[in-house]
Amino acid sequence: MKKSIIQGIFIIALFFSIYGILSMVDWISFFKIETITEKSEAKIGDLFWKMFQENEKENKNAYLNHSIDSIIDKICFANKIDRKIVKLHIVNKAEINAFALPGGHLLVYSGLITHSENQEELSGVLCHEIGHIALNQVMKKLVKEVGISVLISMSTGNTGTQVIRETAKKLSSTAFDRSMEKEADLKAVDFMIQAEINPLPFADFLNTLADKEPEDLKYFSWINTHPDSKERSKYIIEYAKGKSFHKKSILHSPTWEKIKKDIQE
Ligand SMILES: [Zn+2]
After folding, report:
1. Whole-model pTM?
2. What are 181-191's pLDDT values in tens digits?
């Protein structure tokens, strides 16, 4: 009798401790992320990119594309990032914006290049977006925004154009979690330092854009989707402080000047 009571208590204790351990695991996000394979992510990214291609005008200027690609080459090489995962697309649009789609598609609007005072500012935004890609945050954001089932049906080709359009829009016009944004910012500083790019102009860029008049803000999508620019600027400066690094320009000055000229045409 006594033995069976002890056995009973033991079983109950065992049950609760297993339950306790299991409940500590974040199963939802574990399964949500794991069920989306790399292949599915690539498929979803291609769908989104196709949609943008149909609606936006891609800038095919070879010199421009090659030059921006060479900035990305340097960032990836210096940080041991597989270069193939970042696929650059320059889109002719006045908005200051850049964002990553699933599968490493990185869209850069011409307005961002036009409004970058120097190549370091542009490199900072590129590093931030490459940070979102390298930290695998793009799919995490989508899972949170639209749910796993929508994404799975998208990867199997079972979604209508409207859903694809609305989901893709979330990537161009909404922010990641504040913690993810900060993570991508600090990653960007690390990437820049490794690639011998001065990170301080990136902080200046955020600071300057934060001071723009509200009526201009419709052009500043990247700032709208990335709030608290002043605060970001401060923690970027703080994080970079005390880190020793070389400051080199990736592109020669004439190349940067030609880019700025070409982008106006
Ligand atoms: Zn971001």
Report:
1. 0.84
2. 999 999 999 99
